[in-house]
């Protein structure tokens, strides 16, 4: 992710301690830093990492009203005249600051950038791939259940069609036909079972991912912290106390707009009354967007500021996945067989020694990578098997629908003859 990407910016005033005066400008938030740029000169007066912040507070005094203070190491920065309001800026800054500290790239992000080994880098990449594959498996499992429910519904329709066919045959047969009483038998006992099956499927809730978010409802200027839960059956927005604010079923979502990699809006349209719309901002949103894109592929829209994100994530995906696997297998080969070339390629002894020095990983890291690769292989096989099963189910559904359509047309013609 581009660390220079501007997530949000607000007009405000900054107290410049050197000249003892307030300077008007814009306070900007990036994924890893806070910046302030003066309006008149365009000079960057403030620029520090989120991990260096010790405290963010709302303060006021006899001379300074409605101010926001940020304690960075031993320096206290004062911001005032914040628009649209101090509370909005405070909630967003505090959210990204806390998430930065809680994430694996939090307080020690800068030091870890120099100290991380190639093994840790690969472990992080493969762990991310494993998480994505697990999320995909959850969605596919839910789709499989939906296919099963469709098949049960089609089987019930076929049973009803058989009953209708018997009734039509009874109506078409002459009154003197001696076997007409046998045609009235119908398997009505299956109805309670079907009802129980449908109710059981409705009670199933599959949570794919849950992230903390900053919530804005419609066009309100007030924001509040909460949570976004992506379910197999829809979306759920709740407050900090896990009280549900709104729940979108999958069919209720009309569009999802990705404004930036960190901000989306979800909308349900209505005729004759205002739309239900929520704008969601989160430091964890890049993890949720691929899941949303997978579930709402026809309803999600990437706006101009997010096109770079989706392009960078989509275009080299195959090559990136291939390079991860090749790098992992090559490095593991280098650890298990130090004498062989990395990745199985031929090279000189000097090149081998240099590569091993640059990309050497520990035995513990190699063991962890092997375990992750084993899990990835199992998940990939399960996903492939589920996709094949769903493909067969889709063919069966198509065949059943075609057969039901023919039967309906046939029975319509029979009914016309009777009337």
From TrEMBL:
GO terms for cellular component: endomembrane system; perinuclear region of cytoplasm; plasma membrane; presynapse; SNARE complex. SMART domains: t_SNARE (SM00397). It is found in: Cytoplasm, Perinuclear region; Endomembrane system. GO terms for biological process: synaptic vesicle fusion to presynaptic active zone membrane; synaptic vesicle priming. SUPFAM superfamilies: SNARE fusion complex. GO terms for molecular function: SNAP receptor activity; syntaxin binding. This is Synaptosomal-associated protein 47. Keywords: Coiled coil, Cytoplasm, Membrane, Repeat. The keyword Acyltransferase does not apply. The keyword Transmembrane does not apply. InterPro entries: PH-like_dom_sf, T_SNARE_dom. Residues 355-393 form a coiled coil. It comes from Steatornis caripensis (Oilbird). PROSITE patterns: T_SNARE. Residues 356-418 form the T-SNARE coiled-coil homology domain. Belongs to the SVAP1 family.
């Amino acid at each position: 992710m581009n660390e220079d990407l501007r997530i949000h910016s607000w007009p405000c005033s900054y107290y410049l301690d050197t000249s003892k005066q307030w300077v008007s400008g814009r306070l900007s938030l990036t994924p890893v830093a806070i910046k302030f740029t003066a309006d008149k000169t365009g000079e960057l007066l403030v620029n520090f990492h989120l991990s260096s912040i010790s405290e963010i507070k709302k303060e006021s005094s006899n001379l300074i009203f409605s101010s926001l203070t940020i304690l960075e190491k031993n320096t206290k920065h004062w911001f005032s005249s914040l628009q649209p309001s101090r509370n909005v800026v405070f909630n967003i800054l505090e959210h990204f600051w806390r998430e930065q500290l809680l994430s694996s790239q939090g307080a020690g992000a800068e030091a870890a950038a120099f100290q991380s080994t190639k093994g840790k880098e690969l472990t992080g990449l493969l762990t991310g791939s494993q998480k994505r594959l697990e999320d995909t498996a959850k969605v596919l499992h839910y789709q499989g259940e939906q296919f099963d429910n469709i098949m049960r519904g089609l089987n019930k329709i076929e049973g009803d069609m058989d009953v209708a066919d018997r009734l039509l045959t009874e109506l078409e047969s002459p009154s003197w036909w001696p076997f007409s009483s046998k045609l009235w038998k119908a398997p009505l006992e299956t109805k309670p079972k079907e009802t129980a099956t449908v109710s059981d499927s409705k009670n199933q809730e599959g949570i794919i991912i849950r992230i903390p978010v900053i919530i804005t409802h419609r066009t309100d200027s007030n924001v509040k912290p909460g949570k976004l839960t992506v379910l197999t059956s829809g979306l759920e927005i709740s407050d900090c106390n896990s009280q549900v604010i709104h729940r979108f079923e999958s069919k209720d979502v009309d569009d999802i707009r990705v404004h930036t990699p960190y901000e989306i809006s979800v909308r349900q349209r209505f005729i004759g009354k205002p739309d239900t719309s929520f704008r969601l901002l989160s430091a964890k949103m890049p993890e949720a967007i691929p899941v949303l894109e997978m579930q709402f592929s026809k309803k999600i829209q990437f706006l101009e500021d997010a096109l770079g994100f989706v392009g960078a994530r989509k275009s080299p995906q195959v090559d990136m996945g291939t390079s991860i696997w090749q790098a992992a297998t090559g490095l593991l080969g280098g650890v298990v067989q130090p004498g062989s070339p990395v990745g199985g390629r031929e090279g000189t002894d000097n090149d081998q020694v240099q590569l091993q020095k640059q990309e050497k990983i520990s035995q513990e890291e190699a063991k962890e990578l092997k375990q992750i690769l084993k899990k990835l292989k199992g998940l990939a096989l399960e996903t492939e098997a589920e996709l094949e099963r769903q493909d067969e189910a889709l063919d069966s559904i198509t065949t059943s629908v075609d057969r039901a359509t023919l039967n309906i047309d046939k029975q319509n013609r029979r009914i016309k003859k009777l009337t």
